[in-house]
Specification:
Blueprint (H helix, E strand, L loop, with lengths): L6 H8 L1 H13 L8 H14 L3 E6 L3 E7 L5 E7 L26 H20 L6 E7 L12 H8 L7 E12 L3 E3 L2 E4 L1 E10 L3 E2 L9 H19 L6 E10 L5 E2 L2 E10 L2 H15 L1 H4 L3 E8 L4 E3 L1 H14 L5 E3 L9 H7 L2 E9 L19 H18 L2
Parallel strand pairs: 3-4, 3-5, 5-16, 6-15
Antiparallel strand pairs: 1-2, 2-4, 6-16, 7-14, 8-12, 8-13, 9-11, 10-12
Organism: Aquibacillus salsiterrae
Protein name: Amidohydrolase
GO molecular function, one term: N-acetyldiaminopimelate deacetylase activity
């Protein structure tokens, strides 16, 4: 891919070998949500070598906020997530995970690496008096999974107060469905609100030979499921973004016994608060069908990440920077999908946006996140460093 002549791309390419080393080390030693102790220690060690950052540790658990202050000006945050997934890696690469059942299958190792690359370039700029304002490099734990309180890392990060002074926040995510060096951006809602639910339908159970003597929760469930699936096909405007899916159904233990209850677990995804409320209302209405059929129900809803709402001005900056430093970079403008991203908690509080950076190898864009064979093309690493660093400088100049 031909790059622009701007110095920052050359500087990022110059540290590519270092970026690859960092990323492979992190990939080899992944840690789950809220368990990122060694990952945190590695990040701190890299940052301390630059000797210019004020490093705050223990943020939201094992999180880190590294601050570089160049005097008066805006305060800009650059965020990377740190945690891995409970997946057994099957890539066969030399640096494959050494932790059984744990894998960086969502690219967080690459995200950490690229923000460490930003740290290195910004430290050089700072020594030359080229940082006007303050930059906070945010290494956030627990993006993938919530704790017993139903919270991921971003809400704890916000509660800590460590980033309450931000004027803007930016982040990236690697994207295996785009070729390496391609950019995907989107204004407004770009990833989904996440609401998971558990619905227990309660009957009386009974003997399979005498179903008329009790209330059969499986029979009731058949109507509930029809109602759930009809929400999207018949009650929601096809032009609106929202869906309900059932992922688990549990009932009974033997063929000739009608169980006392059935448990349905699923997820609701939406892009707007209006649609989020509508789906919850529809779910509650459908659950009440249980009572009209002689049963009872218990419904619980776990409210997860809010929609990732990308600020239009920041997205314009991403596009401007990309076309300036990579004139031939293909740029696609469309939402990122119905997955969740807890950076959405931050964009609800701070002007901010995330872009997706292509990382597919050899033109194979069939890869997916959260799979045992997920890998990235490491050529994407210096590209991400360049885009994040240049965007940070551009945001600093706005002040």
């Amino acid at each position: 891919m031909q790059t622009g002549n701007w110095e920052i791309t050359k500087r990022a390419e110059f540290i590519k070998a270092q970026l690859i080393d960092w990323r492979r080390h992190l990939h080899r030693f992944p840690e789950l949500s809220f368990e990122e102790r060694k990952t945190s220690e590695f990040i701190i060690n890299v940052l301390e070598q630059e000797e210019v950052f004020a490093i705050q540790t223990g943020v939201a658990g094992y999180g880190i906020v590294a601050t570089l202050s160049g005097g008066e000006g805006p305060v800009i945050g650059v965020r990377a997530d740190m945690d891995a997934l409970p997946i057994q890696e099957q890539t066969g690469v030399e640096y494959q995970s050494e932790h059984p059942g744990v894998m960086h299958a969502c690219g967080h190792d690459a995200h950490i690496t690229m923000v460490l690359g930003v740290a290195k370039l910004l430290a050089e700029d700072y020594r030359q008096g080229k940082v006007n304002g303050t930059v906070k490099l945010i290494f956030q734990p627990a993006e993938e999974a919530a704790d017993e309180h139903g919270l991921t890392g971003a809400p704890y990060l916000l509660r800590s107060g460590a980033i309450n002074d931000l004027d803007a926040a930016i982040a990236l995510h690697v994207c295996p469905w785009r070729n390496t060096g391609e950019l995907q951006i989107n204004k407004g809602p770009s990833m989904a609100n996440i609401d998971n639910f558990e619905l227990e339908i309660i009957g009386t159970g009974g003997h399979g030979g005498y179903p008329h003597q009790g209330t059969d929760p499986i029979w009731i469930t058949s109507y509930v499921l029809q109602g759930l699936y009809s929400v999207i096909s018949r009650k929601i405007n096809p032009l609106d973004v929202g869906t309900i899916s059932v992922g688990e159904i549990h009932a009974g233990h033997t063929a000739n016994v009608i169980p006392k209850s059935v448990t349905i677990k699923g997820t609701m995804r939406s892009y707007t608060d209006v649609m989020r409320r509508r789906l919850i209302e529809e779910l509650e209405s459908i659950a009440k069908v249980t009572e009209s059929m002689g049963g009872k129900y218990q419904l619980s809803i776990e409210h997860g990440e809010p929609a990732l709402d990308n600020d239009e001005e920041v997205i314009d900056i991403f596009r401007e920077i990309a076309t300036s430093i990579y004139p031939n970079m293909p740029i696609y403008e469309e939402p990122y999908g119905m997955g969740g991203e807890d950076f959405g908690h931050i964009t609800k509080q701070v002007k901010g946006a995330m872009f997706f950076l292509g990382c597919a190898s050899n033109g194979d864009t069939s890869g997916s996140l959260h799979t045992s064979t997920f890998q990235i093309n490491e050529d994407a690493l210096p590209i991400g460093v360049s885009l994040l660093t240049a965007s940070t400088h551009r945001l600093l100049k706005q002040g």
